[in-house]
Amino acid sequence: MTAELGHFALILAFGIAILQMVVPLVGAHKGWRGWMAFAEPAAVTQFLLVGFAFATLTWAFVTSDFSLQLVYANSHSAKPMLYKVSGVWGNHEGSMLLWLLILTLFGACAAWFGGNLPATLRARVLAVQASIGVAFFAFILFTSNPFLRLDVPPFDGRDLNPLLQDPGLAFHPPFLYLGYVGLSMAFSFAVAALIEGRVDAAWGRWVRPWTLAAWLFLTVGISLGSWWAYYELGWGGFWFWDPVENASFMPWLIAAALLHSSIVVEKREALKSWTILLAILAFGFSLLGTFIVRSGVLTSVHAFANDPERGVFILMILAVFVGGALTLYALRAGAMEAKGAFGAVSRESGLVLNNILLAVSALVVFVGTIWPLFAEMVFGRTLSVGPPFFDAAFSPFMVAIAVAMPVGAMLAWKRGSMARALRPLAPVAMLAVALGALAFAVQTGRSALGPVGVALGVWVIAGSAVDLWMRTGRGPLAGRLARLTRLPRADWGKSVAHAGMGVTVFGIAAVLAWQQEDIRVAQIGAPYAVGAYEVELRGVTEGEGPNYRTQMAEIVVRRDGRDVAVLFPEKRFYPVAAMPTTEAAIKNGVLRDLYVVIGDPQQGGGYAVRTYIKPFANWIWGGAILMAFGGLISLSDRRLRVAAGAAKTDSRTGGVPAE
Amino acid sequence: MRAVVLACLLWAAPAWAVQPAEMLDDPALEARAREISAGLRCPVCRNESIDESEAIVARDLRLMVRERLLAGDSDSEVVAAIVARYGEFVLLRPDTRGVNLALWLAGPAMLLGALGIGIMTIRRRTAPAPETLSAAEKARLEEIMRS
């Protein structure tokens, strides 16, 4: 019964979304306040109804109600509770419901916190947001209904894909969707501004927190996925340039660009039409990602609801929204005349360079991702575009960004001086080169990747520290230290996020350049050396988990005669899903990860064992966490919270002084 | 019962990637084999190199790479032999023949284009701003300085 109520709530919300799409828009056009005011209660009601529908589906999963087809196909009564709950979004239909829940949540947030927006803009934003909702309500109700019942309820379910029964992956989709869908707010603001025909500093200040929030959720979501791949897939890879990964990475890159360009709109009222375009593109790439993941047009390791009919539906949504927005853009963008002029050497130019590098790198990923499809359809060539291409074509952009970042961040607004920006960075550059050279000297006969990674990482991390320090002005040390704590949080956020980027760049370079791998048949009780470590397989035992069977090995790792770690890698078998998984055992460390995987028993006795020493692996995700944390600090800045009060402090919207 | 047997078979089936038994004794040759395998796509998998894949055909390809290396082939000859059999689909690094050139040049071309547009726009925007004060502003400034 509850499932039917949930279904009904979903249909009701669909109806409200249709009204919310039309009524406020007409109201804003005609200037009817009552019609405009309809948007807020509608947005909140939509959220409550979808929330109820989501709760009923979760309830069905928690209570293992196998009369629901979705629960039967994706759950099992013996599954741990965490995965019963995460099973709600571990499948196509449920994840679309989560998508809708988040979409309506953002709509409701715009209604709750949008009190200070100009009434017409708010009405239009909410109407555009509702139109996205309408498309996805239709999608879920007509092609992917999660509330379908089975005529004869089976005794037990078919279990969730064992690979997905993992804490890292349980929370990966919600964060990813918060990011994807969060970009819909930037899109709604962009389209509303185009309808309105007006973009000003207040608009920039409004869009920035939403984009920042979406970007930081995407950062967390992507890094959770990457971390999961690292420990779950069994050989310690963290990024595979798979179409589905690219699908989440492209919006991230564009969102990062949008984040920076909206700063220029806010502070200098320049780059307006470019920022609008980026906002449209960012959400466009989110929709494209949804299409790629759910249509199955591109083969990917993440198989997920490959259904051509659904793919066509999403493609139509994509075409209507991006096509419509771009048409509107072509008609209206001319009206967005820029105000703030700036010199060739200035913070604005630095941010333009940032935008160019990020946007073009996103396009490179895009071209590489769809190239196999394109080549097959147009030229009849069946080919692959894999990691070697992306490594070669994409990495240079990240290197360029890392090189330019500290300089651009130091330049003054409007008219900067290269010499003044470079002077405090000179010691940083020397430190970076020195440490890079040191790394080169310590390693022998390996690629240049490691030293370059060290130099770039140091350059970016120390550069952001110097940037923060220079903001404290001049004078005695004590005064500057005191000022350091009182700097705006946005400055802190910027430096922390930039430093996080440096940490990630270093981590990736270090692990790729210096990792050691050992694959062999290990005999029980016979130690062997891997790098500076000694590894010994002590034994293998059979065991039983809640919904799987396991072979667990005990492996001791020693260094200089001392035990460093005792690791228990597993090979599991999930009988319901008839799927084996490997559970690597990892001893995490700041300087290195020890990573062991147990394989099959061999004919001549012993077991296949893989051992990896992965230096600085955790820095990859540590840097991502820093980036997200920087975004969070920046989001808590008073100036952004004041942004909610932009209408109140109207005198300030004309232009914010250039620091 | 049959399910259990099948499960046990799967359980014991050779899984994941390179097996110790497949590896060559000569470390230099083995390193080359790994390098080559990382660039070849498993023909039946979704998006994995033969180095990572668990599929039987990937294993056969790994063995074939090693056989050819032992026979004294160069890296490119090994790759060419496998491409001749399975088509360019197995190349994870697309070649630069024909239309693929566009794929490789897309990044640099877009970057140059974007930089060009960016520089032009900034140039145009930076219409020479009045560096000196106008007469009225000078008068006002003097007034302020006097007071």
Record the SSE blueprint.
The complex is a heterodimer of chains A (659) and B (147).
Chain A lengths: L1 H29 L2 H5 L1 H24 L6 H6 L6 H6 L5 H22 L5 H25 L23 H4 L1 H25 L4 H32 L10 H26 L3 H24 L12 H25 L14 H33 L7 H24 L7 H5 L3 H17 L6 H22 L6 H10 L2 H26 L1 E7 L5 E3 L2 E12 L4 E11 L2 E6 L2 E5 L4 E5 L1 E3 L4 E10 L5 E9 L1 H19 L2 H6 L16
Helix pairs in contact in A: 1-3, 1-7, 3-6, 6-7, 6-9, 7-9, 7-13, 9-10, 9-11, 9-12, 10-11, 10-21, 11-12, 11-14, 12-13, 14-15, 15-18, 15-20, 17-18, 18-20, 20-21
Chain B lengths: L1 H11 L14 H12 L17 H15 L4 H12 L13 H26 L9 H12 L1
Helix pairs in contact in B: 2-3, 3-4
Fold and architecture overview:
The complex is a heterodimer of chains A (about 650) and B (about 150). In chain A, β2 and β3 form a beta hairpin. Chain A is of the alpha+beta class. Helices cover about 65% and strands about 10% of the residues of chain A. Among the domains of chain A are: about 160 residues, Up-down Bundle (Four Helix Bundle (Hemerythrin (Met), subunit A)), CATH 1.20.120; about 100 residues; about 100 residues, no CATH class. In chain A, strands 2, 3, 4, 5, 6 and 7 form a 6-stranded antiparallel sheet that branches. Chain B has about 150 residues and is an all-alpha fold. Chain B folds into 2 domains: about 90 residues, Helicase, Ruva Protein, domain 3; about 45 residues. The longest helix of chain B has 26 residues. The radius of gyration of chain B is 31 Å and the shape is elongated. The N terminus of chain B is likely disordered. At the A-B interface, α14, α15, β1 and β9 of A face α1 and α5 of B.
